[in-house]
C-alpha cells in the first residue's frame, strides 16, 4: 500500500468507482496508473471516510491504508438511495429550461438544451431578464443560435410571470436553473404544478454541504440549514410527485462565462507564479458541463428512476489544487511555478484571490452512477487542451490583465516578478 500512497502524492486526478480506484499521472496526463483493489479490511461498515486529514495518521489497526481510506460505494444505497434498473423512456418530451442570466450555471442550461434537442426532445429556454441586456452579449447567450437552429425556442422574462412569458404553453418537464431561494423558485414550481408538468428538476449546489474532514461529499450527507437552496429543495419535494435535485460544483466548457481554468492560464502564459492558498493538496471536483447535461438528460428520459432523488452533478474524479495548475500548464505546453501562501498571513481574502475554496471541496456522483446508470465521458487533461485552444483563439493570452492581489501576495512573500 505504500506504493499507492506515494502515487497519490504525485498525481492530480483521483477516480472514484466501486471498489477499484485508478489514477492519472499529473506529470504524464495520458498515463493512467493501473486500477488496484482494496481489501475489505479497508472499509468500515458505516459512514467510513474517503480521505482522512493529511496531517493526521490513522490509528485504527483494521484499516490497511494510511493515510487514506475509502468509502464503500454501496453505502449510497444503504443510506437511503434505491438502485432502479428501469428502462429509459423513448417518449419525446417538451422541456422548459428556466435559465439564469449570469454566473457559471448559465452554461448548464445551454448544454442541456442542445443535448435534449439532439435526442429529439422539444426545448424552450426561458432566460431571466431582457434579451437586449448587456448580459446577453456574453457566452453562452451569444451562442443561442445553436439552440434555435436545432429547433429550440428562446424566450426572456421574469420567472414570477412565467405563465404569460411562455404564452400558456404546457410542458412535460420543467428545470429551474436560476433561483437560489424559495421566493424566486416557488412561482416556477407552483406554475409548473398547476399547468400539468409531470416532472420538476432543480439545479441546487454542492456548496450546501457542511464542511467535512471525511471527503467526498455524498448524497445524504448533512447540509447547512442556513443555505437558501435547502428550503427550495424541500418545497419541491413536498409539491411534486416526480422531482429530482442536482448539486453541481465547479465546471468547465466552451461558453462558460465564469473563470475556472482561465485563471490558471492567465498566469501560466505570462510566466507568473500560480499562487495557491494552503498546501495545494486540497481536493476539489471540476466537471465538464457535457457530463452535467448528460446526467440531466438521463433523468428526463428515465423519470421513474430519477424521481425523489438528489444527485451530485459532478464528474467522477477529484483533482488537487496543485494538480489543476500542473494540468493547465501541460495543456498549454508551458512550465508552471507554484507558490503557496496562507491568506491571513499575507493579508488577503482567499475568496477574492483564488477561484476555488481553500479547503477540501469534493463531491462524488454516487447516486447518479448507482440509480441512473450514468457515467462520465470526459477527461480533464484533454478537456483543458481544448479549453486552452479556445483561450488562445479569442486572444485572451494577449489581453492586458492586472494582478493587483497577486502582487500584494508576492510582496508579502518577498518574491519579485520580472
TrEMBL record:
MF (Gene Ontology): UDP-glucose 4-epimerase activity
Protein name in the entry: Chloroplast stem-loop binding protein of 41 kDa a, chloroplastic
Cleavable signal peptide: none
GO biological process, one term: monosaccharide metabolic process
Cited PANTHER family: CHLOROPLAST STEM-LOOP BINDING PROTEIN OF 41 KDA A, CHLOROPLASTIC (PTHR43725:SF6), UDP-GLUCOSE 4-EPIMERASE (PTHR43725)
Organism field: Spinacia oleracea
Pfam families linked: Epimerase
Annotated ranges, domain NAD-dependent epimerase/dehydratase: 103-313
Record-level GO cellular component terms: cytosol
